[in-house]
Design goal:
Layout (H helix, E strand, L loop, with lengths): L6 E7 L8 H11 L3 E7 L5 H8 L5 E6 L4 H4 L5 E2 L1 H6 L4 E4 L5 E4 L2 H11 L8 E5 L3 H12 L4 E5 L3 H14 L4 E4 L9 E4 L23 E4 L8 H8 L4 E2 L1 H16 L6 H7 L5
Parallel strand pairs: 1-2, 1-3, 4-6, 7-8, 7-10, 8-9, 10-11, 11-12
Antiparallel strand pairs: 3-5, 5-6
């Protein structure tokens, strides 16, 4: 039940039809007796900069979750950003502090990496390919570098985005081998789709599935369906996979701490979540 006392967390992005976070957070809030709610708010890219400042003036708002396509631009719209967000070049969380200033942070990468590690796959010394150098891809790449990967290959349809991410990674992780320009998955231990490919019917696969070895771990960020065409094709080859929502479940405890709601576990969240696809 939403009342005048309910604390709001905006969920900002576009389109909102694929949003999964409210179906995880809100059942948990209800179970815990916390009077708070995650509220989807669709904002077009051209309206985002103006809308964000107005939304953040709502007096019953604690902050916001930020998703595609706004993560990168959000970094320049907050008053302060954490080092993690700066390295990633994007924000997916905004905290409105008591003085009204906005603090940005990024949890996508940590959530993705924790999910893969909990499945028994280590990044230490691994060769990893990440396709997509936007907000989510940049965050995942930064966390993979932090987790000890030996080589990181980056690809983006906008070559300059991949090059900019590579430069930031080389600055902070000088011993990491960083390559750009190819999305050929052959020879990699882990490949990650951090592009929107898979959100629309008829999208091409983000990788040439024939070039992926059965020993390769395949990760996905798209959440339109639990098992996207990429993941189904990878599983047909015998690959271990990670679905898009795993990243969400693993990062939500960090989000809750960021917003001051305590913490929980991915297992506790899964037990009450009401996901729909």
């Amino acid at each position: 039940m939403i009342s005048g006392k309910t604390t709001l967390i905006a969920h900002l992005g576009y389109p909102t039809a694929t949003f999964k976070a409210p179906m995880i957070y809100n059942p948990w809030f209800e179970q815990q007796g916390i009077d708070a709610v995650v509220m989807p708010m669709g904002v077009l890219p051209e309206d985002y900069a103006v809308s964000l400042r107005q939304i953040m003036r709502f007096t019953n708002l604690r902050g916001a979750l930020v998703t595609m396509p706004h993560k990168v631009v959000t970094l320049d719209l907050v008053d302060e950003a954490t080092p993690t967000a700066r390295i990633a070049g994007a924000c997916n969380a905004i905290l409105k502090r008591p003085d009204g200033s906005l603090l940005g942070d990024m949890f996508d990468g940590a959530g993705f990496v924790r999910g893969v590690q909990r499945k028994g796959r280590s990044f230490r010394g691994a060769r990893v390919l990440v396709s997509g150098a936007g907000g989510v891809g940049s965050a995942i790449a930064a966390s993979i570098a932090q987790a000890g990967a030996a080589e990181l290959a980056l690809f983006d349809a906008r070559a300059e985005s991949a090059e900019a991410l590579a430069a930031r990674l080389r600055q902070h992780y000088p011993s990491l081998t960083v390559r750009t320009g190819s999305k050929d998955p052959a020879g990699f231990d882990i490949v990650v789709n951090a592009t929107p490919l898979g959100m629309q019917e008829g999208d091409p696969l983000p990788f040439d599935i024939a070039r992926i070895a059965p020993s390769t771990f395949v990760g996905e960020v798209v959440m339109k369906s639990e098992y996207t065409p990429l993941l189904r094709a990878a599983m047909d080859k015998g690959c271990a996979v990670q679905v898009g929502t795993d990243m969400l479940f693993e990062q939500i405890p960090a989000y809750l701490e960021f917003f001051g709601f305590g913490t929980t576990t991915a297992e506790a969240l899964r037990a009450v979540a009401k996901l729909q696809y």
